[in-house]
């Protein structure tokens, strides 16, 4: 029996020993398969062994733990103690939760290794959990002021995990005016010279503060001093690393980033402003792929290409690299590539460079600048990748032309663009955001988010798709990118076809389509076996408007004669 089959939780739990053994062996390939299988599992009953196995999976090196997030939250929600507290939170019964926070049985459940790993290592994408965590955070803040009950080591561990989660999601959770006033008092106490309070009290204050704002905002010197004073606590060290050291590292990196030029175009300036404030995507870990030569990957993607010849190393440009997930994935995916990644947002680049260092990459370089100024670099690339960028330009076609002009004849491009039909499901949420007339400060984004969440939970959302279904809803920058963008345009396949004809670029095909979509297309248009006819794809998308949820991602080639 394949061992992932052991996790059919519609059946009574089976013998956990074989999975324990496999997880202990830590064979990377099996772990990745297990994580993928488990990430899409729907659960129906509580199982302590399952929670333990999931917690062990969160120890896997080189895994993007987002694939475990929903299953981990679902597994915890089935555990009776969490279930009760989630129900309390759904009724907004803070008094019941306050009482339970002091009872050893409940605390023991909160101290579950799976809960800690879920909160510290990835993003919780569940509204019920968000409500529970928001209430628990407020209770810890109130306790910080009245000290009505004592903190145990279990509390301390949970507070650190909650502070990590709030940091991970960029403090997306709702706050009220009373909390903000209380937090200001906590911050004032923490900014006093060290020594005026005992260390335990400082530690408690720091943990509470870290649940509402990153510790570096206390003033780096003061924050660090206190962290050092408390460096014997490993949980607090983890908090300091995430909330102080990473920030300091990015601030240092920022000073070293070289620029090659900005166009100064007004839409691009507005977009730059957004990504300076809200670097995208907010990410923590990447699933490290097995590297292959670029030509092999290309032949596998498009067998009709025949032999693919490339320069060595293959020079790849990633235009609009954001916070680095995209170029880091590319740099790891090909065994023969060097990557130049550019972006107009220095905040995004600093995040990207920190992550590239963390993964020990030496084949990726980052530069600050506008894709409209690429010619000034005097470089040509074998491959150009640009995902989720052109649709934020005033003139996307001119942007694609600028990228084509730095591509060698015979080179390849991978582009990601919004689909007009697939984005229709966001229109109600986007109109709601626009109608609120609010700005885009963190507190305004939090407010818009809460209002949308309230509409969904009060069943005031007519569409079958709710914005809270989207994982991007659960981090502030990603939420802003999803629903509150300063400028976005969209394309249909036919519109894309017209642009490609004008630029003399050849469409090679879409990627990331579901197998059932490919099968349905093959049945509908058997004459287009490689799915390359954008007029037929236009018809097909009109009949299946959801096929490009997320983005339309496709490859192009430039003729050798250009
Ligand atoms: C939605 S993010 C996509 C990031 C990344 N490609 C990804 O898929 O994760 C768009 C990025 O494009 C960058 N960008 C927008 N206009 C640009 C331009 N004219 N030149 C270079 N980068 C640009 C933004 O700063 C932002 O980081």
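-> sequence recovered:
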């Amino acid at each position: 029996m394949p061992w992932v089959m052991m996790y059919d939780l519609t059946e009574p739990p089976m013998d956990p020993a074989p999975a324990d053994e496999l997880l202990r062996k830590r064979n990377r390939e099996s772990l990745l398969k297990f994580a993928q299988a488990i990430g899409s599992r729907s659960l129906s009953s509580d199982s302590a062994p399952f929670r333990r196995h999931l917690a062990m999976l969160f120890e896997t090196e080189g895994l993007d733990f987002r694939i475990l997030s929903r299953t981990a939250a679902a597994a915890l929600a089935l555990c009776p103690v969490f279930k009760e507290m989630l129900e309390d939170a759904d009724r907004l019964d803070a008094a019941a939760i306050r009482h339970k926070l002091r009872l050893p049985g409940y605390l023991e459940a909160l101290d579950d290794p799976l809960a800690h790993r879920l909160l510290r290592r990835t993003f919780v994408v569940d509204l019920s959990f968000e409500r529970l965590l928001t209430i628990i955070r407020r209770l810890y803040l109130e306790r910080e002021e009245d000290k009505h009950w004592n903190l145990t080591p279990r509390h301390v561990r949970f507070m650190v995990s909650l502070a990590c989660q709030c940091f991970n999601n960029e403090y997306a959770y709702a706050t009220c005016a009373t909390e903000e006033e209380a937090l200001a008092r906590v911050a004032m106490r923490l900014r006093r010279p060290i020594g005026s309070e005992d260390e335990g009290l400082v530690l408690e204050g720091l943990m509470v503060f870290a649940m509402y704002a990153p510790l570096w905002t206390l003033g780096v010197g003061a924050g660090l001093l206190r962290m050092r004073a408390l460096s014997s606590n490993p949980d607090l060290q983890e908090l300091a690393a995430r909330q102080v050291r990473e920030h300091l590292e990015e601030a240092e990196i920022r000073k070293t980033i070289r620029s090659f030029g900005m166009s100064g175009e007004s839409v691009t300036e507005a977009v730059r402003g957004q990504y300076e404030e809200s670097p995208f995507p907010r990410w923590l870990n990447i699933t490290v792929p097995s590297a292959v030569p670029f030509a092999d990957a290309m032949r596998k993607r498009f067998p009709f290409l025949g032999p693919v010849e490339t320069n060595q190393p293959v020079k790849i440009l990633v235009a609009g690299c954001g916070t680095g997930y995209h170029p880091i994935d590319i740099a790891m995916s090909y065994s023969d590539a060097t990557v130049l990644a550019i972006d107009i947002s220095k905040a995004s680049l600093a995040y990207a460079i920190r992550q590239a260092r963390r993964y020990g990459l030496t084949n990726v370089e980052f530069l600050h600048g506008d894709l409209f100024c690429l010619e000034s670099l005097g470089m040509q690339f074998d491959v150009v990748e640009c995902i989720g960028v052109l649709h934020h330009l005033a003139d996307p076609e001119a942007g694609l032309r600028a990228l084509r002009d730095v591509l060698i004849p015979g080179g390849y491009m991978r582009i990601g663009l919004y689909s007009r039909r697939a984005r229709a499901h966001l229109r109600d949420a986007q109109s709601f955001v626009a109608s609120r007339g609010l700005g885009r400060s963190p507190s305004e984004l939090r407010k818009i988010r809460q209002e949308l969440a309230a509409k969904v939970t009060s069943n005031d959302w007519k569409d079958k798709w709710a914005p809270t279904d989207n994982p991007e809803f659960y981090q502030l920058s990603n939420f802003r990118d999803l629903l509150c963008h300063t400028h976005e345009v969209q394309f249909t396949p036919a519109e894309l076809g017209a642009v490609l004809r004008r630029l003399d670029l050849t469409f090679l095909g879409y990627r990331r389509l579901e197998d059932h979509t490919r099968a349905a297309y093959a049945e509908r248009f058997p004459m287009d076996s490689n799915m390359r006819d954008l007029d037929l794809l236009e018809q097909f998308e009109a009949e299946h408007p959801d096929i490009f949820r997320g983005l339309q991602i496709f490859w192009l080639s430039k003729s050798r004669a250009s």
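Residues 268, 271-272, 275, 280-281, 319-322, 325-326, 342-345, 348, 370-372, 387-389, 392-393, 481 surround S-adenosylmethionine (CB under 6 Å).
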